[in-house]
Design brief:
Shape: elongated
Bound molecules: phosphoenolpyruvate, manganese (II) ion
Radius of gyration: 26 Å
Order of helices and strands: HEHEHEHEHHEHEHEHHEHHHH
CATH architecture of the largest domain: Alpha-Beta Barrel
Strand content: 5-15%
Strand order of the largest sheet: 7-6-5-4-3-2-1-8
Mean pLDDT: 96
Number of strands: 8
Distance between the termini: 39 Å
CATH topology of the largest domain: TIM Barrel
Oligomer: single chain
Number of domains: 2
Largest sheet: 8 strands, parallel
């Protein structure tokens, strides 16, 4: 089931937007000078549309820098006044939300830890109710698309129509190269379930390290995401939080220069025609694939019947091992991805065994 929520396109609340939406700014606001120096440089890069900065910081362990608090709101107001950039921060309870709205912030976002808590989201929703706020909802720390949707629905039920989802990756179970692993499947599922919802990517919290920012950002555009939220600090290595993942405004500019921005559609009729030709070919190939599978299923049924008559088991482990080896080798010669071939044959074999046992259990 899809939920066609009544959500405004980004351009309705950000008329200056010239796709994609790029939000940049430091992880944490630290000093007035750091906030303003960073903002001045980012504002010069006309590709940045919103300035971000954490005022209240959710830290995993106590005793780490927990943000400058309310004074940061004043610095964000100064950024807005001087550069004209809309400004935003993370809110994690009713009091933050009240203060941020009172300070005239343009964007509020709900952090990953808060999205995972329906009580917190509801508390924020109750405060934004009846306002024109722009609320962005990061994915929860665990890859639960329902929890993410639930948070978005709570904000929507409070009458907010300016909503954006942010993919910032999920807490890994085991150590991975990224700080929070991206899960594009979950993002695609959210897009399918809520087709009107703009979704942007936060490569900074996915990457955890500067060196991975480019590959994740490019992947986000390849996947058709609507923009990026990237952390940028005037002096990243000295940042009081997330030092390893922030970029100077100049390096952010270089990263943006390299990125290929992709759109879901184009106005180029030649491209659309050629795409149609290729898609028709894929449709035909898929039909052929299904026909071949159906022939295979019929053959499996015959094997099942034959085994039944001779009291032979549905599963013969040697045959299965040889079959898999053989199919992987053929796949390699055809330059198919090994993991892909393996998972396809795992599914095919599983279903073959299931069918044979069904035949054997028939009266
Ligand atoms: C942040 O944006 O600085 C932040 C704390 O992000 P997240 O909620 O994604 O961890
Ligand atoms: Mn951060």
């Amino acid at each position: 089931m899809t939920l066609k929520l009544d959500i405004n396109p980004i351009k309705t609340w950000l008329p200056k937007l010239d796709n994609p939406l790029l939000i940049a700014g430091p992880c944490s606001l630290e000093t007035e000078k750091q906030v303003l120096d960073t903002a001045r440089l980012l504002a010069k890069d006309k590709r940045v549309f919103v300035y971000r900065g954490g005022v209240w910081k959710p830290r995993t362990r106590p005793g780490m820098f927990e943000g400058v608090g309310s004074i940061g709101l004043k610095w964000l107001q100064m950024v807005k006044e001087e550069t004209g950039l809309p400004v935003g921060t993370e809110v994690a309870n009713a009091q933050h939300t009240e203060e941020a709205l009172k300070a005239g912030l343009d964007v509020l976002w709900i952090g990953a830890r808060s999205t995972a808590s329906p009580f917190v989201v509801q508390e924020i929703a109750d405060v934004v109710k009846g306002t024109n706020a722009v609320v962005m909802v990061k994915n929860p720390v665990n890859p639960d698309v329902q929890l993410w949707m639930g948070a978005i629905e709570r904000i929507h039920q409070a009458g907010i129509r300016n909503i954006v989802a942010i993919h910032r990756g999920f807490t890994p179970f085991v150590e991975t190269k990224y700080r929070n692993y991206p899960n594009w499947k979950t993002v695609i599922e959210l897009k399918r379930l809520m087709p009107n919802l703009p979704i942007i990517c936060d490569p900074s919290h996915i990457a955890g390290k500067r060196e991975y920012l480019f590959e994740i950002s490019q992947k986000a555009f390849d996947m058709g995401m609507d923009g990026l939220m990237i952390e940028s600090h005037i002096d990243p290595t000295c940042a009081l939080s997330d030092a390893a993942q922030q970029l100077t405004p100049a390096d952010l500019g270089k990263l943006l220069d390299k990125l290929v921005i992709r759109y879901e559609t184009t106005n180029n009729p030649a491209f659309e025609n050629q795409l149609d030709v290729l898609r028709n070919r894929i449709d035909d190939l898929d039909t052929e694939l299904l026909e071949i599978l159906s022939t295979r299923v019929n053959t499996i049924k015959k094997i099942g019947q034959y085994k039944k008559e001779n009291n032979v088991t549905a599963l013969q482990i040697n045959r299965w091992t040889q079959l898999m080896e053989n199919r992987v080798n053929i796949g390699k010669k055809l330059e198919l991805n090994e993991a892909f071939v393996k998972s396809i044959f795992q599914l095919i074999h599983e279903d073959s065994v299931r069918m044979q046992t069904e035949i054997m259990d028939e009266e």
